[in-house]
Amino acid sequence: MSDWKQSLHKTRYVMDVLLLIGFMLVSAPQATGLPGHEWLSVLFIVPFAVHLLLHWDWIKQSAKRFTQHISAKERFSLVWNYLLYVMMLLATVSGFLVSVALLPTLNIELHIQDFWSKIHHDSATLIMPIIGVHLALHWRWIVNLTKRMRMKGAKV
Ligand code: HEM
Ligand code: HEM
């Protein structure tokens, strides 16, 4: 594999590990406390945006791919990634709308509505199995990369 492709895979791998750790922290407000949860969720936007940027080519082509003749697995993956994106957006936006620490610290007062609490709870709960399937769809890549990253000096 050419050098730039090899380092792109390594970069994606390291960033995916950070993203997963970040996601696990963000998904456990009981462990981090609500203020910790809110600040970590804001920080989490960074590895999430990097993840999307590292797949920018895929994103740019995704709408066109949808109309092309592709395998059922690829089509499923397309729809799934869009679903994942919508859920992340819902969880993040609703998170801000139920903020009890971050926005008040910034002197922004909000009247918290039950509707947004429910959306936040439901979207955050749904994201977990959706990410589980997202990872399962890339399982072979994850196993291969993990093996190769552990072999010192090996080509990825
Ligand atoms: C905990 C969160 C996530 C983890 C651990 C994760 C992990 C992965 C892995 C392992 C891959 C394949 C390897 C690679 O090329 O990097 C991948 C691909 C991809 N992910 Fe994620 N991902 C996460 C969240 C998301 C979210 C929220 C989106 C939003 C749309 C997303 C969109 C994509 C896209 C577009 C690709 C490339 C296309 C594909 O092959 O499906 N990921 N992700
Ligand atoms: C990807 C982003 C996020 C995920 C996955 C996430 C996940 C969660 C989870 C799992 C809960 C517990 C829900 C429950 O048991 O009812 C929760 C609660 C909470 N989250 Fe988030 N969250 C995210 C973003 C945010 C953001 C950006 C904020 C605010 C800046 C925030 C503020 C809160 C608050 C105030 C609660 C407790 C109140 C409530 O559930 O209505 N979250 N979040």
UniProtKB/TrEMBL annotation:
Q: Is this entry keyworded Transmembrane helix?
A: yes
| Cross-referenced InterPro entries | DUF4405
Alphabetically ordered keywords of this record:
Membrane, Transmembrane, Transmembrane helix
Record-annotated membrane-spanning stretches:
12-33, 39-58, 79-103, 123-142
Q: Keyword Transmembrane helix: yes or no?
A: yes
Could you tell me which residue ranges the Flavinylation-associated cytochrome domain spans? Answer: 80-139
Q: What is this protein called?
A: DUF4405 domain-containing protein
High-level lineage: Bacteria, Pseudomonadati, Pseudomonadota, Gammaproteobacteria, Alteromonadales
